[in-house]
Fold:
Amino acid sequence: MGLFVAQLLTGLANAATLFLVASGLSLIFGVTRIVNFSHGSFYMLGAFVGYSLMQVLPGAIGFWSSVILSGLIVGVIGVIVEVLVLRPVYKAPELFQLVATFGVILVIQDLALMIWGAEDVLGPRAPGLKGIVRFMGEPIPKYDLALIAITPFVLFGLWYLLTKTRVGVLVRAATQDREMVAALGVNQSWLFTGVFFLGAALAGLGGAIQLPKGGADLLMDFNILAAIFVVVVIGGMGSLPGAYIAAVLISVLNVFGVAYIPQSTLVLMFVVMAVVLTIRPYGLLGREEVAGEHGQVGEPEKPIKPASGRARIVVGLLLLGLVCLPLLDSHFVLILATDIIIFCLFAASLHFLLGLGGLVSFGHAAYFGGGAYVAALLVTHANAPMELAFLMAPIGAGFAAVIIGWLCLRLTGVYFAMLTLALAQLLWSLVFQWDEFTGGDDGLVDIWPSAWLSEATTYFFFTVIIGVGGILLLRHVAHSPFGYALRASRDSNRQAEATGIDTKKIQWMAFTFAGAMAGVSGALFVFSKGSVFPNELEIAKSFDGIIVVFLGGVKTLSGGVVGAASLELVKDYLTRFEYWRLALGLLIIFVVIVAPHGIVGSIRRGYERLFSRSTTRVDGESS
Amino acid sequence: MNTQQADSVLKVTGLSKSFGGLQAVSNLNFDVRRGELLALIGPNGAGKSTCFNMLMGQLKATQGDVFLRGEKITGMKPRKIWRKGVGRTFQITGTYQSMTVIENVQMALISHHKKLFSIRPYATRLYRTEAMQLLELVGMSAQAERACAILAYGDLKRLELAIALSHSPSLLLMDEPTAGMAPKERINLMQLTADIVEERDISVLFTEHDMDVVFAHAHRIMVLNRGELIANGTVEEIRSDPMVQEVYLGGGSVFANESSHA
Amino acid sequence: MLEITDINSFYGKAHILRDLSFSIKPGEVVSLLGRNGAGKTTTVKSIMQLVKPQTGQIFFDGVELTQLPTHKVAKLGVGYVPEERRIFTDLTISENLEVGRQPPREGVFEWTTDILFDLFPNLLERKNNRGKALSGGEQQMLSIARTLMGNPRLLLLDEPSEGIAPVIVEQMAQTILRLKDEGLPVLLSEQNLHFARLVSDRAIVIEGGLKKFDGAFSELEAQPEIRDAYLSV
Structure:
């Protein structure tokens, strides 16, 4: 009994941080409709800033004022991000803002590295709350009790702010109907900035307040990201009470999980989410999101055509150049080219979903890593020959996509995106924690191709054939009736359904196909590296995919491939520098603001502007 | 309505819909007879769109049934109803903006020929002749290769008509076919529709707020008010019906607490 | 005080308003009449800049509105009551009023919650209820009251009588007459001719986005052909 209560209390204490951070995310989303991926970074900053302040400010008063000051400072940083990065892109297609927040993650990571160094920082104990108290014989840290006591006040404070103040009333009104709030004379820009301040401040507060329990390190941002998304999704996006209930639910379950099923603590969270969303697709206290009539935001993409003779020649020449690469006799170039082709295929498969299908999946790495792991597991445990393992990779990844697609496609928009992310994380946590089967963190090694492919040059040719072949296949399918039906479902779901197209089924098939193709790239990857680690299924990998598709241009057929190739090349160059993340992050933000149509889209626009003859443009409403 | 039963293409019996406590449509009974252009009119919020969405399967009826040539289609999905030979155009056009004009029609033809899951052929090369014929029919063949996104509104409406005709429907449901068009274009589009349906023996049920269009082309008119059918007759009958006048002019019921809508 | 010149507005690709011009003088209640789809709502939204007219100008007390964001138009004193009412259903009635509150304006009647609750007693009884608990008529009242909290210098009412019980419409008419007494100019978009005649001095009739009539109600009565052509069946 004592142990039970002690665990419950630990869970409640952990819920404090989770709730603080998640409520900020939820608030920001509710009002601005922006899914702020850099929220984890605000949390991390809160921890580091809090740590530095605590070094300077002494005693209990110093400690607690440091916590509060960290919140305020991070709030101001949030405002800077909102004003500098997000304001310029509010009018861009909404998911473009996500890419901008990815850029922010990278920038903050390197800034933190510059200021606080790479070493993990141990959080100071809270003065006066260092010891433990015994409850029925079980030790309970005093600080946990303090956290449990504080959370209701924070909740109360937020509740007071949101219900009893004018600003709070405006925020809630804007969550429901932004346009009407503007029509009543309220300037939304300031409301957005204010909400960003509050949201970021809450994240910073969360980061600082957990210092005595967890310290600060450079991985905190991504580590908490999945958890807070889960909390927000389970609670219902935009609902604070929902976030609180979900935070408590997840934290308490987690503590019991650690005690009774220690191998599956990570999985547990995602299982809970999957169960909740299966029963209540919009979260515990969430409201159904009304999807717009037309799938694509902004200007529609240009009609596509099968490649012209000239285009075929250009592609042929490029291929020829690729095949001639081994003549350079540089091992480095071959490896780089192999990596690029693999990443291009992965990006092309994601682009198929995202661009043609309008289905924004945040968890596409699941099928890349999934394919890699299927192959690696078959080699490791079944001693399967490389050929069989390679063949099973897309089948395995496609199978995962069939199930995940079925679950996710019941939802639309942000909810769809969030569920794909969470289910991908579920797979990741399985791989990460199932040590004896997947090797856990140590990954699976010694996964080499068969003898006839063991030569680096031969494997490179193999990659060219399979990888480029895969990209061309994806491209061909885009031009087939199936690809057209997918675009039709995106352009006007209503019209498609009203002319006999089973849009859900089309999308489901597309999801599966894209997953299988990502599986192919995963298989190419694992045999080129000889090993695979859980980070190939990680959020960061999925994000990489989304970034390149957006950077290349979502609304262009070749956007995924071009974006992937450019990013790999840029990355290869930048990673030679110490602060390459900073540079890359700034570059991404720069592209988002300056060229919101992506690389291919912007080049095409420039080209059209130079040689605008036949293309009469009557687009009235767009600016 | 005499013994027209045999000629009834669409039969609606006791159709009702309530949203929460609000009765949007109550107890509708009517037929669409073969070859006729039947107009459904009524003020804003009278329930026209609700009625249409139930006929086409977008909304579930609370009560009542819809029969297509004797077969019950109540509760069927829109795409199933379409496969049974019912075409539809929307108040706000729902064309595929990222495709060319002819591809929009080809898409419907691909669906009609059940080639949606095929990944081998190039979609743009399928059923081009058929699609071009349909575009010619609505006077859009010259613009076949243009991007749908740059079409003028009136042309979009024509394109939508071509799409709706692609599976040779026997019944066409048109929701405000001329909304948002200039008065002259309206008459032209409806004239075109009237000619085509006569030639191809298609029955049409349409809602419309432009009375010039309704009076010029409808064979029969039904008037809906507050979810109820209050009149059903020829153009002349409707024009001279005092109750219809009252509904359109706002009843005079401002200061009298009467509700005279039977 | 409101001067609209040759505006053309589109909804997506549909050309809704065609070279529409009219003006409203201080203290005047003007009805904007026309059938469904004639362009009444688009006219009102164009003034609010919720729909941006592609050409033409709208001056409000000498300020050009077409370049302004919606909240600035509201700040200038244009009060807007939308057709769908759009009250905040998750907020209480008092909170709904709070959203609409703006500082007092010189030379304009200053509305307070007390005065408004006096005007709409139903709202007072339920002031701590959430918006979603209200009936259609009550929602309409709340929507009007919420806009009045901004102390507007011009009120745009979009089809306030639509779908509302006759008793409430009667109350609504009295409210508008009261506003007229306070000297507040109103643009009333309406389909209910009797209601419009009761409260307004002048009528503007539009059809297909074109102005067909602009004049005193008595003139409109004297020209039954206009009524028959654009308003009746």
